[in-house]
Amino acid sequence: MKLYIKVTSIIFIIGASLNAQVGIGTENPRSEVGLDVNGITNVSHRILLKGGALNTNQPGDEGDDKDIIVSSGPTNPTAWVKKTIPDGFGESFNLTYMNSYFDTTGVDLTTVNQDAYSFDQPITTDWKILSGLDNSFTVYKTSNKTNLIFQTTGQITGNGSSASASFACGIFMKQQAETIYRLKGVRTDAVRGTTGSNKIINMNVTLENLPIPGGAGGTVYNVRVACFGRNVQTTFAVGKAINTTFLNQEMAQSSLNISVLESWQ
Domain ranges in the chain? Predict the structure, then answer.
């Protein structure tokens, strides 16, 4: 008998509340909603959307596997939608960071040497830093790809009708906790011609699965771009206009784009 009375009471309360505001965890439910829940909601079975009245035999849409609930705006009903994961590099990746940086100061280069370069070799003072491109990013997932795109302009001047300058530009990186930047990508090139001749230099470096010793909190990486004089036979600069008859500083500036993709899982 007790059980029957309790169930009847619950049914009566719900029935009386169908046309009023109902609050769970609050004594003052908001007037503009039918059900105001203040706290954690646990659904152990199904959520049906866009259903009709009970007597219309239209229980609503329960969605498909891996669908997500998306708001359709203040005047439209909420709906289930497919979760679309972009395909990249043969796997499912998410773009977690992207930014662009600029250096308008540039560097002057003179001859140092024409030695070969090795991956992970430490930066030295012979490399001239484009300081405006110094920056950092954070990686959180062990499955990751980092793409760095560098662009600048080299220009020669002087020496009359014929001059040349060969050089290299490299991208260096380190973990924030480290002290030494190490080479991750390098390109060599040369500018030849009459005074004022210039050339656009592009470099694209992709690094896969950077280590994350920081664990779930992620690891911060610092990036640095620097250039190196190999065989410079005249006045030469990278990222700056030294003969403004043919080039201005906006045209000569350097840029670095950093994008980080990480796995969804």
Answer: 2-42, 91-263
